[in-house]
């Protein structure tokens, strides 16, 4: 019936404590949304650093003069993708499929 004991008391008390700690549903929702926003920022920033930045050009700089002529980002990021960038793209696509 309605007043039966919770089948998993530890899980019930844990969720009850989280509800109490967040001061209600709005707080719990705000916490989850902020965690999702932080995760989205981390994934987006990592993707930008790993896919759009030309690390080979950056690491080939040996002096200030040689670095001035270097483009730090790919001008056409989806043109002539190598194995490393294909693997980065595939990993992030799989993550977004899992996340959706």
UniProtKB/TrEMBL annotation:
Keyword Membrane among UniProt keywords: yes
GO cellular component: phagophore assembly site membrane
Pfam families: ATG9
Membrane topology annotation: Multi-pass membrane protein
Keyword annotations from UniProtKB, A to Z: Autophagy, Lipid transport, Membrane, Transmembrane, Transmembrane helix, Transport
GO biological process, one term: autophagy
Residue stretches spanning the membrane: 33-53, 81-99
The UniProt record lists the keyword Membrane: yes
InterPro entries linked to this entry: Autophagy-rel_prot_9 (IPR007241)
Subcellular localization(s) per the UniProt record: Preautophagosomal structure membrane
Role summary: Phospholipid scramblase involved in autophagy. Cycles between the preautophagosomal structure/phagophore assembly site (PAS) and the cytoplasmic vesicle pool and supplies membrane for the growing autophagosome. Lipid scramblase activity plays a key role in preautophagosomal structure/phagophore assembly by distributing the phospholipids that arrive through ATG2 from the cytoplasmic to the luminal leaflet of the bilayer, thereby driving autophagosomal membrane expansion.
UniProt family annotation: Belongs to the ATG9 family.
Protein name (Swiss-Prot/TrEMBL): Autophagy-related protein 9
Lineage: Eukaryota, Sar, Alveolata, Dinophyceae, Gonyaulacales
């Amino acid at each position: 019936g309605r007043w039966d004991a919770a089948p998993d008391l530890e899980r019930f008390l844990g969720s009850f404590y989280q509800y109490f700690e967040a001061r209600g549903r709005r707080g719990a929702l705000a916490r989850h949304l902020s965690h999702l926003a932080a995760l989205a920022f981390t994934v987006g920033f990592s993707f930008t650093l790993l896919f759009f930045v030309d690390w080979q050009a950056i690491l080939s700089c040996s002096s200030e003069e040689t670095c001035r002529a270097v483009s730090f980002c790919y001008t056409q990021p989806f043109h002539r993708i190598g194995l490393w960038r294909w693997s980065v793209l595939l990993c992030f696509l799989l993550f977004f499929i899992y996340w959706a």
